[in-house]
Amino acid sequence: MIKHWVHACSMLVANLLATRWVASLVLACAAGALTAFGIIGIGRDGTFLSDSNFDMWYLYAAGKAWWARISPYDAAAFLEGVDLEGIFRGEERPSDVVFAYPPQAAPLAMLLATLSLRQAAVAMAALNLLSTLGLVASIAWLARRPGENTRDVIGATRTWYIAAIVVGNPFTAHVFWMGQTSLIASAAIAGSFVAWRHDRVWIAGLLLAVATLKPQLALLPFGWIVFAGRGPRTALVSLAAAGLLSLWPIIVSGGPIALAAEWLGAVERYQFDPFNQIAFEKMFGVRSLFAVVFGDAPSMLPLGIMGLAMLIWFRSRLNTAEALALLAVLTVSFVYAHDYDLVLLTVAAAPLAYLLEERPALRLWVLGGLLALMLPQRFLRGFESPILFEYREVLVLALGALIVAEVRWRHATAPPRSVPDSAT
């Protein structure tokens, strides 16, 4: 009886979600949520122009330093040569400010530093908006079936839902409010995979270079590109572009070796910050989960590398959307991530869209899982158990397992179904 009731509810939800008017309503609500929580700042302290974009302040301060020919990785010179107190406005003690973005962030930082803080906040919001639109476009392309007309009802409805997921999830709103670069990196990663599939080596390489603004997010996608078809050329273009973006920091620091040493030293100091400790509630990943449960945990990066190797070995079975989604799952689970970096997981909307079109009975379950994944942590702060903050790691691993199961099922059936292009 219960089984039939659940199946009936699932089919009802599936039929409702398949209608264009429901899709457009969901997208409108998603845009409203982003505006309310990511820009206006409902439920947050302060207002957008005066109190948001505090992560952008680090880029802004570093840009001021580079304009003054000071390395922001040199803590003493940074503190002495830049008005950190004026930029951070009491949010941080100047001696605690650690800039750990890679040197290729210099052009963005220096551009922001030419503006006032308020103008820089608007510019960062505009960059994140463009990145959001680019991310939607890339995911929608990855979700297309071969020969599909993007103007038909199914294709258009799918695109609206993808847009709603990218725009309306709380991680996107958090990135907007913080002035973070996770959206820029995620859009660049997704765009590089689309360009790579079109054999646009230069575009793919340039976008991967931009993605290295967040090296922890770009590491595994870069490794995939290196070992895939046309990958070495793309990787070389990416490395060359990253080098060019880092040219001014190289000059300021007195050479690439000195710059690398300064940056790695800043990264080490960054990891000792209480907000970046693995057991902190805003951290994400299997290591964070183990640290909360067992008190400590080693780096999980080797597991991420092993997962990448397995994806490369079985790449002939994966299409581009599935490969990118699984790389995103491995990245946030085993490399290094804060909760706002989960915006990278939106690339999983492409394979999920295809899977749910084929299996409408799963829609209710997947919808429930997505809502649980996006539940704001503030609703859990009344509970004393820190393990409650780690349930999302399990959900993300389940998402990866679902995509793997779909790949296995597809290759076990005959004749093969119509799926997006192969990842090789």
Task: Lay out the secondary structure.
Layout: H1 2-17, H2 20-40, H3 48-51, H4 56-67, H5 75-81, H6 84-88, H7 106-113, H8 117-142, H9 153-168, H10 170-178, H11 182-197, H12 201-211, H13 215-227, H14 231-245, H15 247-253, H16 256-271, E1 283-284, H17 286-294, H18 301-313, H19 320-334, E2 337-338, H20 349-358, H21 363-373, H22 391-412
Antiparallel strand pairs: 1-2
Helix pairs in contact: 2-9, 2-10, 4-7, 8-9, 8-10, 8-11, 11-12, 11-13, 12-14, 13-14, 13-18, 13-19, 15-16, 18-19, 19-22
Description:
The structure is a single chain. Helix 12 (201-211) packs across helix 14 (231-245). The protein is mainly α. It is built from 22 helices and two strands. It has helices spanning 2-17, 20-40, 48-51, 56-67, 75-81, 84-88, 106-113, 117-142, 153-168, 170-178, 182-197, 201-211, 215-227, 231-245, 247-253, 256-271, 286-294, 301-313, 320-334, 349-358, 363-373, 391-412; strands at residues 283-284, 337-338. Strands 1-2 form a two-stranded antiparallel ribbon. The longest helix has 26 residues, at 117-142. Helix content is 67%, strand content 1%.
Features:
22 helices; mainly alpha; 424 residues; globular
Give me the secondary-structure category.
Answer: mainly alpha
Which strand order does the major sheet show? Answer: 1-2
Give the biggest beta sheet: 2 strands, antiparallel
Number of strands: 2
* Rg over C-alpha atoms, rounded to the nearest angstrom: 22 Å
Helix segment count?
Answer: 22
